[in-house]
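Exercise 3.2. Students should predict the tertiary structure of the chain below and write it as structure tokens, then compare their answer with the key that follows.

Predict this chain's 3D structure.
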Amino acid sequence: MVNILDLIYAVIKNFKICVPGSKHYLDLPEDYNTPSFLYDIVFNKASRETKYVKDVSLDLQIVLFSNKDELGKEDYEDKLKIADQLRRFLDTFILQVGDRYLKFDYGFGEADEQLTINMNFKFKDGVINLEESYELMQHLYMNRKEV
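Answer key:
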């Protein structure tokens, strides 16, 4: 089973390697240092595929708070340099979470003049309560007739 918090911590570990000295937050404090990354789950969906397996889809948005230029605006060149540093990890398209290796897609964007990194994970995972799952699946209907 993949724990979402473990997934986020695995991303943070890789981002720290790419951008040494960066700070990482799940809640951004008022007195943050730059460069800082804020992690936010944008979308998380799970659907049952079989009795024992579910499909999981998770979109993680990471917002970069970079250095400001002399006018107090985000330094565009700094954003591009950090984006390039992150590609060392992002271009692998694989994240190790515990003993699992998860594939992901990514894209860069912008929100409120901040660089965003959007990571999209799609993977299969185990279902937790098998006995309860069995009870749900005892009745199978095909063309409105119980089988």
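Discussion points: The chain has one domain: 4-146. The mean pLDDT is 90.
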